Each structure stands twice: as C-alpha cells, then as structure tokens.
Amino acid sequence: MSVTASAPAKINLALIVGPRRTDGFHDLATIYQAVSMWDEVTVEQSSAGSGLHLTISGPESFGVPATDANLAAKAARAVAALADRPADFHITIKKDIPVAGGMAGGSADAAAALVATDRLLATNLTKTELTALAASLGSDVPFALLGGTAIGSGRGEVVAPTLARGELHWVVALADEGLSTPDVFATLDDMRSDAVIPPPVVPTALANALVSGDVTAIAAALHNDMQTAAVSLRPSLQRTLAAGMDAGALASVVSGSGPTSLFLARDADHATDITVRLSGAGVCRTVRRVMGPVVGARLVSDNT
After folding, report:
1. Residue 299: inside a domain, yes or no?
2. What are the tens digits of pLDDT across the range 5-56?
3. Does pTM surpass 0.90?
4. Catalytic site residue from 39, 118, 140, 225
5. Nearest to 202 by CA among 241, 148, 154, 250
6. CA distance linking residue 3 with residue 43, whole number of Å
7. Judgement on whether residues 146 and 28 belong to the same structural domain of the protein
8. Among this protein's residues, is 140 annotated catalytic?
C-alpha cells in the first residue's frame, strides 16, 4: 500500500525580521506565497519490523539526507506515533525544489509526508492536528500545508490566509549551491547588533497591493530584511539580481534566506521574455518560470 502527496515551494513577498528571541528564533512578519514548483513524496507501507528507509530522486536531489534527519522521515514518524503504529515505511522523495534555496523544500517534503502518512494509516487527523504537527517540525511546514497566499507570524509557523487577487508570474534564478538559514540569520544579527529592532509588522502597502491585484504596486512593495545578509555571504547574488532587472523584471528580491533570486513579471509572456534573457546572462545555475498562488500539500495518488 502506498500514498503519494505533493507540496509546493514557497516564496516570501515580504519578510520582516524582529529581534532575536531568548529561544534563538526571531519573530517574523511575512507574506508567503506558494508557487508552482513541487516536490512529491510517496509513503509506502513496508513489512513489520523493517523500519523506515528513504529514496531521493529528481533534479534537485543532491544533498538531501536519506536519514532520520530528513523532515519527511520525521513527519511520517510523527503521524505513526500518534496512530500508535510502527514507522515501517519506504519513503520516496522526488525533488524539484532546490535544497537550502530559501524556498522551503524540506518543509514541503514534511507537509507532503504528513498528508500521505495520514491517509496511508487512516489516522484521519483534523486540520488543527496536522497543523500542530507541522509547526513542531519546522517554521515553514504549516504554510506548505496551507498554500495560497498567507500572512505568517511567530517564527513563521502561525499562518492565516490573506486575500490576493489574480495570478503573479515569477522568474526564479537558482544558485549553484545553497545558503545556511542559521548563518544568514546570524549575519543579520551581527549587522544589526547596534540597532534597536522594532516588532515586525507586515507592510500595509504590500497587503493593499495584493488585494487590488496591482502588479506594479506589488513590485514596489516587495521586501526582504534578510537580503542584505544573504548578499554579504554570497556577493555574486548582487550580479544575479542586477541581471534580472536588466532583463526587464518589475522587481527583484532574494527568496527567504537565499540564495534563490526572484523576479516579478507583468504576465506570463513577460516572464518568458525575462527567462530567455536571464538564461543567457550566465549569473545562475538555471532559470525557472513559476506562478502563484497555488494550493498547499495535496494527495496525488492513493493505492490503499
């Protein structure tokens, strides 16, 4: 018996970072959007006593741990524990979301594994129960379950849908190698060590622009507090961001903690033009075109 679920990549249209908390996390105010880049996770029931094993495949599989450290494995174990069942599973992850790219690929895998394991074991967890499990696994996992466009608070794990009219078209520049999120946060803290950091608040201009669907206003309001720190750790990002603007993007922004760079287009045709021009600039590993918002984690197939 096996179940397959998918979950999308996330981007942050705004990411406002508060001061470092005593638990080591930071309070955040963010607007998430799920975009059309997907990981698929298949959870298959194995024979009794066989334990949990992982297989990683797909174009972005390099560097993904096939161990208990994998978030999908942790998610499957968490559901099995709630069901009082052994975690005898073979989990296959098909990776299309970059690793350590600021697009929450590991969180997407965890969300997909939660949905697939819940169906496989027929635990029938409520939305509240799944969300609580997701929050225990990582800050971005609850949004990977929810999808769409949402406001995130706390350390990012408290999510609420927000109105966003129309589709947004993005060009995504993937870097040669990832960045460590803790390293980017630490660098940001060092940069702001002498500053008084106010509590984070979602930018009103961006929230209003999303409601109106005005892509030009959305472009003007994109913001990421972590971008300066990411660029300081990976100076080549500045060249990537500049190349995207030279290719005609309405705006550029680093995705989350980086190093993936995002470029907003007017529409699908404009995104195609930017993709072609940026692909020839030699400033990133590869270029992808995506749109948002899309749905969160969902079942793909059910062979139970």
Report:
1. no
2. 999 999 999 999 999 999 999 999 999 999 999 999 999 999 999 999 999 9
3. yes
4. 140
5. 154
6. 6
7. yes
8. yes
